[in-house]
Amino acid sequence: MKPLTILIWSIVFVLSSQYASLAQCLDRNLCIVHDEQASTQETLAAKEIRRYLYLRTGNLVPIRKTLPSTGPTIAISIDKSLEHEAYQLKTITTNDQKVLHITGGSGVAVLYGAYHFAEILGVRFYLHGDVIPDEKSVNWQIPDLDETGSPLFKTRGIQPFHDFPEGPDWWNEADYKAFFSQMPKMGMNFAAFHCYPEGGVGPEPLVWIGLKEDMDTQGKVNHAYPTHWANTANPKATWGYAQMNTSDFAAGAGLLFAEESYGPKVTRGYRPKPTTLEGSITVFERAANMLRGTYGHAHDLGLRICIGTETPLTIPKEVKERLIVKGMDPTSREAKMALYEGMFSRIARAYPVDYYWLWTPEGWTWSGNNQKQLDATIDDIKIALEALHNIGDPFKLATCGWVLGPESDRAVLDKLLPKEIIVSCINRHVGYTAVDTGYAQVKGRSKWVIPWLEDDPAMISPQLWVGRMRRDAADALWYGCDGLLGIHWRTRILGPNMSALAKAAWDQTGWNPDFGKNLPVPQGKLIDVYNEGKIATFKSPIADTENDVVYQTCRYGVKSYDIKVPNGVYDVTLNFCEPHYNQSDERVFAVKIQSKQRLEHLDVFAKVGQNKALDVTFNQIEVTKESLVIEFTPEVENPFIAGIEIQGKQKASNQFAAGDFSRKINCGGGAFKTYEKDLEAKGVFQDTRPRHFASGDFYRDWAEAEFGPEAAQEIAMIFQRIDGGGVASGRDANIPRPTTWIQGPGGIKVNKIPWSEAQKKHTYVDDMEALRTQIRGIGSLERFDYWLNTFRYNRTMGELACARGQFDKTIETMNKTDDKEAKKTMAREEALPQRIQLARLWERLMNQQLQRVTNTAELGEISNLEQHNRKKLQYLSLHDKLLQDTLGQSLPKTIHPSKGYTGPARLIVPTVQTQLKVGENLDIKVIVLDSQKPQEARIFSRSLGKGTFTSRVLDHINRGVYVAMIPDQKLSEDFEYYIQVTTEAGQILCYPTTAPAINQTVVVLP
Prior knowledge:
By secondary structure, this protein is an alpha/beta fold. It has 22 helices and 40 strands. The strands form nine sheets. Strands 13-12-11-10-9-16-15-14 form an eight-stranded parallel sheet, with helices on one face. Strands 2-1-3-5-4-8 form a six-stranded mixed sheet, with helices on one face. Strands 32, 34, 35, 38, 39 and 40 form a six-stranded mixed sheet that branches. The longest helix is centred in the C-terminal third of the chain and has 38 residues, at 778-815. It starts with a helix and ends with a strand.
């Protein structure tokens, strides 16, 4: 038989086989049933089941309103015998009819059951979107199921943080709705937001501050002050991001943006910020209109919304001036009451929420607080609560902050505030610190734990914290909390973290060894103990000391020492040594003694180098409660201590006579000379559990869903290996972290280690690359390449950091040379080539970043790289003037990164909505990333699973940005679409990559 004949018959066979399977499915009359009087959420559940069955099987199942007497059926209903958010999936077969009952204690619980059913079909859900397996299940039949689900926490969700372009600052209405639509799929029911009223990145338009008389009955304001969210035009709107035109972005990144000044739509025309009263009012009203629609969508899905500001209330200067004109003292209780009543009334009228939270001062976690500050905060919260009561309690009040409460008693808010107020906080030290044990002391009120899904110091680096999310969720459950949220900015790159946290809010069996156990609740203080930490021993000789043995052992990852000491006044000396790292910025931490900050940003290597003793003495330390407390705060990597010396005068007491007192402790080691052995961990309570739980089971399921079964086990092992590894995690740095906070988030560090040595830590990239040929399916390959390019990008950042380090070394050597000719020769032959190399590395870095841009968060990462690192920090150009002056001539153009795009053509849809309301339009932003304008760009759409596709040409906005509109202007039924672009070179690009076999689908809510 000829090859062509074989091919034709193969196609016919495959098509006929699939048709037969589908026909068999259709012959069975499979249908979905819900009640005639079904709620919006029940109706949505039925539509979602139909949508995912269609995507997985190719079969469009009808939805009916009466249960048939025969044929396989999926029945949707509410069962009041179940708890409010509990669901059940149970298959019952009677008289040859097989019915899968998906029930829930409420409409939203039915929705949870529907999405769990989709997961059984092989679908996976993340905040950035759905993952649909490439291979369809053509022989699918109703499975025999008997499963129930009930959440462990009443409140489950996310806390996207405003202040950087990587986060909600750059979200538009479609982004909010897209993310809110994903949350019930993940079993989440809560979204909370923070607003800066002034200073730093504020004032932000999430919350308007003013008087009731300055708005109408609908909440529209007639007086406002300049407000903004992050945008590329404002040099002061965002920490560390310099003003920059998007057309000046390197490597073709400017193609991603249609405007020179980019930001959210609500600020369009008023960037960097409004300069008139009318402009200020407009931005606030645009924000309110956007939030009204998005919060309404959230409420339709059973989500609750929380917004808030910091306490004591920050009053914008324009508002203060207005109060003074009205004869009011801005510092008075009367003025604060009036402002809170105005703020709360406007929210209730303009965009209703469910909670308002007040954030305690950030300084409480970094520099402590005094009684006056605590009193001011408590008074302000009580004023806010009274104001809320005065306007009829349209929502509830909560507290939050960077710490649960003041350092004197983290649980004291529970004793000072009415029980109706919820308490919460984000974990301390950007998530490296475990859940505050003070939660266990809070009784009789709701309390929410908020782990960090990522931290902003490493904003543009990959951060994998599945094991840590599990630990924080386990702690939250152990301490009796009823809320579990995750703070974050980005979305897709946090997919594993978000999924792990969401799943841990429903089930902790299998990985939490303490789940279901009645463990003692932590209480009291440790006496004469260290708090956590592991021992490290080194053999290298130690310079600048005669007590090598003390410095050759240390306790690292330690949180604190609480040492039994008689009351008195002492000199306390801390013994440090850096035996591990051979460059600065690898281990940085802070130290408190007796609750007072004594050291900040301590980098032992930067001070004395490697394997050298560093003794730091603090004089006149007073001990009043027979306890000397030394606390260690991680900034970069694990804090460590080699020894502690305490010497001074003890006071007379019932136990001790007045006189000299001395005590020395060899941290991590045994007794040596006058040093006693390290303390034993003992006391009322000690948490001995690991900071990270195992993550292998999670990654195995995740990898198979993301990339298919062929290489899932190997990929899971790579991710498990690098999960949680790195800075201050209590384990080895398995994945390098090339960024930290440098005048803002995600600053690329300078690394003076040669790249030939540093690259040895990037083997995870090679391991990932080696698996690419095993990936099957175009969707799996797209997801694989996202992570592969993420890892490549992280490696290139590391190489760039080393190249900059070698460049800095050359400049330092050059500056030490007095011979002008030798200096000029070094500049020409060494420094200038290194400078040019930096530009080429930057181009490679940006190109790799452009290969992984898929959503608004990654557009924000582009902003960070260009505005923060390249321009603000002058990562490439810091020494340009010196180099130019030394050479006595202008530097060549090759020192500048190219603006042209040289990578492969890409089609990007940064915001993907999967749910609309009847009559609502779908406007889709499309980015064509290519060096040439495409020949053609079209969108194809049809009703879900039926009819022919109609198409429409995409509207070109500017550069690589287009807008796609579904031809039917007022959509009324579920539909599917795909986008197809023909490049100038004739390449066909599709979105989604699986189209037209598997298209993007949209459910239309009634």
